[in-house]
Each structure stands twice: as C-alpha cells, then as structure tokens.
Amino acid sequence: MAQRDGPSFLLSLFMFLSMLSSLCDCHPHPARLMSSVAAVRAASNHTARKVSDIASEVAGYADVAKRIIDLAVFGAAQNRSYRRLADFTDTIGNRVSGSHNLEMAIKYMHNAITQDGLDVHLEPVKIPHWVRGKESAEMIVPRAKNLAILGLGSSVGTPPEGIEAEVLVVESFGELKRRASEAVGRIVVFNQPFVSYGETVAYRAYGASEAAKVGAVATLIRSITPFSINSPHTGWQDYQDGVKRIPTACITVEDAELMWRMAQRGQRIVVRLTMGAQTLPDADSFNTVVEITGWQHPEQVVLLSGHLDSWDVGQGAMDDGGGAMISWEALSLIKDLGLRPRRTLRTVLWTAEEQGGVGAQQYYNLHKVNMSNFDLVMESDLGTFTPLALQFTGSDAAQKVMEEVVKLLAPINMTKLETHGEGTDISPWMQAGVPGASLHVADSRYFWFHHSEGDTMTVQDPQDMNLCSALWAVVAFVVADLEDMLPR
Q1: pLDDT by residue (tens digit) across 82-102?
Q2: Among residues 137, 194, 407, 470, which is most buried (max CB within 10 A)?
Q3: What is the pTM (predicted TM-score) of this model?
Q4: Which residues form the catalytic set?
Q5: Could you give the CA distance from residue 10 to residue 1 in angstroms, rounded to a whole number?
C-alpha cells in the first residue's frame, strides 16, 4: 500500500475530525484543540528525527563492519570461500539441472554446511531434465572441417543419421526474414555481432523457432560472447508454441565468421549435424536453505543467494559457484564472530537457475504468503570478481538507508551504491515490491567464460572472493539488525 505524507495527512485528518466535533458541540474546547495539534506536530518532529537518525544508527555499525571485513580479508577466514569453492568444484564438477552431479552437489553442500555449524535444510522442488547426448558437426563443402558445437538447452535431437543440408548464413532476424525463401530445407547459421548479452542472447533463445517459421531444418548460433578462442558457449533456448521444433546448437565465433566469409564469396556450404539431445521427465531436486535465526524478529528475513546448478561444461566455478560460496561464507563470518542480528539471515542456494530460475520460482510460490516479512533479497550471479558497487532496487527511502550502509565498506574502498539490483532468482520478489540487491563486479571477462568449458577455478581469484564475501556479510548483517525494516 502506498504511504501518504504522514504529518500533513495527520494534521488534516485531525482538523477534519475537530470540525465534525464542533458541529455537534456548541462549546468547542480550544485548549483541547491546541494540545492535539501540538501532539500531531510532535509526531511530525519525531518522524523527521527518525529519518535524520538513520545515518547515525547505521554509522554505529562501523566497528562490527570492520570486524567482519578484517576476518574475511585479513584474518582466519582469508581465502576460505575460494578454498571451499575449489574443493566443491574439483570434487563434483559441473552440475546441470536433473543430473546426478547436481544431486551430489546438493548433498555435498548440505554436509559441508552442517559441519560448519550452521542450520541447514532442504526444500524439495521439481526441475527440468535435459540431456545433451553425443553431438558433432562438420562442414563437408567447400572443404572438410570439424565444427566445435554445444547443443542448446531444451533442444531436440537430430535423427540418428543426423541432418546434412546446405547452410544459409544471416546476421540478424531481419535478414532472415528478407531471405526467408532461401531458408527452406537449410541449416540457418546466425552470425550476429555481439552487442551486449542482454540484447544478443535473443538469437540463442529464439533463433531456432524463428528459423523454423521459414522452413529451416536446424540452426547453428554464434556463441553469445565478445571473445573467443574457438570455444562454444551453451545456454537455455525457448521453443515457441505452435512452431516446429528443430535442433539447435551454438558454434564458435570463429566458425560463424568463417562460414559468413565463405557465403559472402558465393561459396556453397554444406554441414552435417548430429545431436542426441533429449528431454526426460522432470527430476526431483532441492533448494538448499541456511539460516541464522534472528533474536528479536525471527519471522523477518534478509535473504542472500546464489545458484548451485551450472551447465554441463567446465566446472561452474564462476557461474555460479562463486555466488553460492560467498552467500554461505557471509553466514559463516557472522557466526564465527558470535554475531546474531534482530532478523533472520537466510542463504538460499538455488537449483535449476539456468533453466529460467525454476527452483527460485517454486520457492517464491511457497513463501510469498510471507511477503511482508522479507526485508531484503540479495543475489550474486554475475561473478565474484573485484567488487565495484552494490546494486539496489527499492523505494527512495530505502535507497537512502542503503547509501548509509555501503559507507561501512570504506575499509575495502567499496562505498558506491547503484540502481537496479538484478538476478533471475530474486526478480519475482523485486517485481512484487521487495527491495533487492546484487553485486556489481569488474565483470569485463565474465562472458569470455560464461557457459563454456572455460568456466573453471582458473577464472577465480581468492582476494576478489574475500572482498565479495566481506561486502555480502556486512550488508546482510547490518540490514538484518537495523531497528526497522527497509521502507517499501
């Protein structure tokens, strides 16, 4: 519910009630009227003081914030989140939705967090189960060349003998539409330039259905990355209802550009594509929930999160093992210091984020009945490189509170607050009006490794993870311990 302007509204309401009273009372009471007006003004002054006191209240956490930072960055917990991530990813490997590896990952984390002395439980969900199977592609005309591919999530497979067809290379949906008559019976190769992930990912998501509409038999999508060393990048794709489902895979930037150059010369290109992809019935899985229960308002929650699943390539260290680990580490730091906030700190390690936030959506459906008790939702899913800012979505009043909170991060030179907190898993909460926060990190290399074999521990830096853990813990603890929840 939108709040009215408090003091002026109260004063107006009082004057209106007083007028009604005077209509029924031939002898008004000026003294009573003036004392009541004074009470309203006092309430107004109290509200003003309360707003001005926020800065001093938050500043009072400077010592606590420094203790958290010192422990994470310089103390006994230094490099701990990095070591935990290395142990986890080296032991389990990648963890695609529905896989045995993901099941083992959840068990691993449940045991590790229990041994850490934190309260942890599992909440069951159903998740998609897509299997890549064996896959290959080769160009056979105008010359023989193996093509590195990764089938896209939810793609159908080819017939066992594969698909052999001429190629049509286009650089945009608009060009595909203009050349629709040429696409019939062909494999469409999209050689779209990388503009930004948010814009260019549409080709991965919708390329198959757009090509199928004009009669294509399969699609090969240039990987959604600004940099390549002949490495394909996978990801989820969405078939449109009522459109024939055709096989779709990503290819490297190099091979997409090679075929585009050949096409520009007028050369005929033929590719043979074989994919054993299939979608199995939904699998059982769990969101992993870790808590430090609040001492005064245990029903109120500050939620931290990252996702535990990954794609079936690389190690899933960057996406999103790092985000999951700092969300665990934040609670470990607070526990190790013997701190306990007013409200409950809850870390959720989501399952099946890569398939569109499936685990998180089911969590939201289950817990939205307690929406008013969710103070802040946080997600780290764009890497745990050097932190640059905290991104935040909330009311103007909440923004002012968070501006004070990030000042506590001065010891690690991270006091910038930006607008627009983001995250697939927390977006349902933010859309419903719950304040949300995410990390802005030095992510220029993020999409170099994203959804590829390159997403390994080699990408991670222990000092960066120390800083991200410290930031995550300070913000979560202070918000959870303030006298009031963030204003909506």
Answers
A1: 999 999 999 999 999 999 999
A2: 470
A3: 0.89
A4: 353
A5: 17
